[in-house]
Amino acid sequence: MLSIKMIGRHAMSSLAGKQGPRYRHTADDGAPYETIAVEKLTPIIGAEISGVDIGRLVEGDSRSNRQMDEIHRALAENLVIFFRDQHITPKQHLAFGRKFGELHFHPAAPHEDEDPALMKIYADKDSPRANGEGWHSDVSCDLEPPMGSILYIKQCPPRGGDTLFANMYAAYDALSDRMKAYLDGLSALHDGEPIYRGLYANYGVADRPSYPHAEHPVVRTHPVTGRKALYVNRGFTRHINGIPRDESDAMLAYLYLHAENPLFQCRFRWTENAIAFWDNRCTQHRAMWDYWPHTRSGTRVTVKGERPV
């Protein structure tokens, strides 16, 4: 039986060989942008957006409408987009999120007094851990997981505290045809209890009678792009349905390591007053907790999504 170490080595090495990498990204820049500037972080995932003032954008005018259309497009093409030097109020942060849909309330995390949809992000020298330090897709344990998340960091450490993002289209595309055939049609249980009972125990959620859980396809189809994406993550996925538990454990171990291959990733170095907006339907992410004893703080707005299919 393959050990986890052997599985991991295979996951990291099997994308390349004498014929080159199995996953080949083909760039398609499409039509030029007219109201924003888009600078890709990598060919695979991520782009920095400039020429946008989010505070003015949410006030709404004809140019704002055109910019919103192009921001939608940039998100679809790059999966996660970043805006630097944005000085927005909590009200403007919420308004920007509502431009993309109804807002999602986190089932466990603390929130600001202004609105329960405004989630607090905070870690300092007294924090035992930081939010989101393991690979995950936000609240995938919900029956209708969030479409996207918009994180605004107001205070960041001088070094560290980066966030990594991974492209789950690319992770799926890089699988062999036989593996794709095996996974297509399978579902998995996503359960929030293990992480919420522990991570958010200090916020009064440890003694809840129930926690969100749902079954989702292992491979989901994006409702906008129509592309298939791998949809299992370490944070919330517990087991694959319909197969023996040891087979599920081995398969999930392989898929997690495969999805976390650096080939599929970008890494964002935060600066104060920067914003990251990612599509939870086709990405995973993790925050680095490497900046103790410094402080990292901000707020997050999350946009409701649909049931994965």
From TrEMBL:
This is Taurine dioxygenase. GO terms for cellular component: cytoplasm. Transmembrane segments: none annotated. It comes from the Bacteria. Belongs to the TfdA dioxygenase family. SUPFAM superfamilies: Clavaminate synthase-like (SSF51197). GO terms for biological process: sulfur compound metabolic process. Coiled coil: none annotated. It comes from Bradyrhizobium zhanjiangense. GO terms for molecular function: metal ion binding; taurine dioxygenase activity. Residues 38-301 form the TauD/TfdA-like domain. Keywords: Dioxygenase, Iron, Metal-binding, Oxidoreductase. Pfam families: TauD (PF02668).
